[in-house]
Design a protein that fits this description.
38% of the residues lie in helices and 18% in strands. It is of the alpha/beta class. It starts with a helix and ends with a helix. The structure holds nicotinamide-adenine-dinucleotide.
């Protein structure tokens, strides 16, 4: 493992345009469950509730959906060592962007700038109207639920309100997809952290990068289907692995040329 960590640190040092691609696994050390690990969100919630079709059709599914949002939003999760390492990559001028499938906003909290973050699956900080696309904060909607509105609708047009995240079956945000594809095509090093790489089209980004000539690194606690396409695979915990990598990047940067 130490050898692989040194190798990735060397790759970062030699790269000009690093893209980091994160999934739920980058946030489990902050206390947020991923979907598929034992004890993950799918062991407590029905994945079908997270399809746009079910959300639109079923009032009870919408209520369960708001319950999960409340669980996530009120917990006050904090960034961990992996988020901090990614923020450091931006501070030292290596990062072209962090493409995240996560909706938890922890890359913002860790210090990555808005301009460097591409949220492919939206954010749980906001809610949106499915009819007129009006935006409001999720906290505002939860407040209305507390006041007795069990199934809140848009006050402007009467449409359904939903967390501003991309549900299964819902269209991907065009601007973010374009930006993610562009960054993936143009990077020289693409690092996946904490993603099972099974949710498409997000999971096509590492393949786009690799096809365009980038070096591909995968850091994940368990094997992924794309391990065989990667130049380096590290099976370990995102926080400790990224911390060790950045220590070596710093050491190499301040050492003799
Ligand atoms: P996933 O649950 O499919 O995969 C997460 C992967 O991370 C797994 O392979 C797991 O083994 C690995 N992992 C877990 N903890 C880890 C750790 N500490 N270090 C390294 N690896 C670790 O999640 P995914 O690939 O992101 O895709 C599923 C969807 O999950 C995404 O669309 C995302 O929107 C959504 N999601 C987001 C959050 C969040 O915002 N934090 C939480 C749950 C799910």
């Amino acid at each position: 493992m130490d050898e692989l960590i040194g190798k990735v640190a060397g790759m970062i040092r030699e790269s000009q345009r690093v893209v980091v691609f994160t999934g739920a696994g980058v946030s489990t050390e902050s206390g947020i469950s991923d979907f598929r690990s034992p004890g993950g969100i799918w062991s407590r919630y029905d994945p079908e509730d997270f399809t746009i079709q079910r959300f639109v059709a079923d009032r009870e599914a919408r209520k369960r959906n708001w319950r999960l949002r409340r669980e996530l939003v009120t917990a006050n999760y904090q960034p961990n060592a992996a988020h901090r390492a990614i923020a450091e990559l931006e501070r030292i001028g290596k990062l072209s962007c962090v493409i995240t499938q996560n909706i938890d906003g922890l890359h913002h909290t860790a210090g990555n700038t808005e301009a460097a973050i591409v949220e492919l699956h939206g954010t749980m900080k906001d809610a949106k109207c499915l009819s007129c696309d009006d935006r409001l904060s999720l906290i505002q909607v939860l407040g209305r639920i507390d006041q007795g509105e069990e199934d809140p609708h848009c006050r402007k047009c009467g449409g359904l309100l939903k967390a501003a995240t991309v549900s299964f079956g819902e269209a991907m945000p065009e601007r973010e997809m374009r930006r993610a594809e562009e960054c993936s095509r143009e990077c020289d090093l693409f690092i996946v952290i904490g993603s099972s790489l099974v949710v498409f089209p997000a999971a096509s980004m590492p393949l786009i990068a690799k096809r365009a000539g980038a070096t591909l690194v995968i850091i994940n606690s368990t094997p992924t289907d794309m391990d065989s396409a990667a130049d380096v695979v590290i099976h370990g915990m995102a926080g400790s692995v990224m911390e060790a990598i950045m220590e070596q990047v710093r050491g190499q940067r301040s050492g003799p040329a």
